[in-house]
Amino acid sequence: MKKIKLTTILTVILASLLVVACGKVMITGRNQLLLYNQGDITALSDQAYTEIMSESKISTNRAHNATVKKVGEDLTRAVESYLAKNGWQKEAEGLDWKYEVIENDQVNAFCLPNGKIVFYEGIMKITNTPDLVAVVMGHEIAHALAKHGNERMSQEVMMGMAGQAISAFIGSEDQKKQMIFQVAFGLGSQLGVLLPYSRKHEYEADRLGLIIMAMAGYDINVAPGFWEKTSKGGANQSDFFSTHPSDEKRVAEIKKIMPEAAKYKPVKN
Ligand SMILES: [Zn+2]
């Protein structure tokens, strides 16, 4: 039997790894490292979501539920239709959108990497118009579509930050993945409170969030004022505005991207 050179094997392995590992963020075109497939991310997020919801109570406030659902459907429909028209439809794979408001006074909202969006009653006092709900929702949807969760898990593995926890743990591949997921998101320590994303991810989510708002025909002009007003918050560690610090730099960045976002016209479904 003919021997296959080791270098050939290594080249093939490396090439296939690179195919899996490289991704491009929709619209911004930024290259990113993605070591996990969306199927894994979706499965892990589904588990986390079931856990969070089993310990939560859906809000009885009909108006809040209706607003969050309407804004969510408007934004996701618009962006998905834009992605489909521009050959980016793969970006929405593994995202099964759902919008819930839960009875909790915390000022918080999140979107898991499987498309499950949760608003807490506490944040509804601040996002008291559909446009303001759209500012937070657009930003959260952007994190999911831009695969920031997968990228963070990949970065943690590359930097070996999750390594310590994992090497001390002998378990199946699935259990290891679950552990990396929990380390990357900080889930498990506090109900539904996700670790803050990096500044780079935050700014990218702000930019894409505004673009998604514009695609759905919402008023992006409320965004700078919203972030300016909430910059005084953040006293509570589990507060949305502590993981989304709004300082002068953030507001300045948002103002800078307003003209770009304004170029996006409402997408006809
Ligand atoms: Zn964010």
Textual characterization of the structure:
- The structure is a single chain.
- The protein has 269 residues and is mainly alpha-helical.
- The protein has one domain (36-262).
- The protein is built from twelve helices and five strands.
- The protein has helices spanning 6-21, 38-54, 62-85, 121-124, 130-145, 148-159, 163-167, 173-185, 199-215, 223-230, 240-243, 248-262; strands at residues 22-24, 31-33, 98-102, 109-111, 116-120.
- A three-stranded mixed sheet has the order 3-5-4.
- Helix 5 packs across helix 9 and helix 6 (148-159) crosses helix 8 (173-185).
- It starts with 5 loop residues before the first helix and ends in a 7-residue tail after the last helix.
- The model has no long low-confidence stretch (mean pLDDT 85).
- Bound molecules: zinc ion.
- The site of zinc ion has 6 residues, from helix 5 and helix 9.
Summarize the structure.
With 269 residues, this protein is mainly α. Helices cover 56% and strands 7% of the residues.
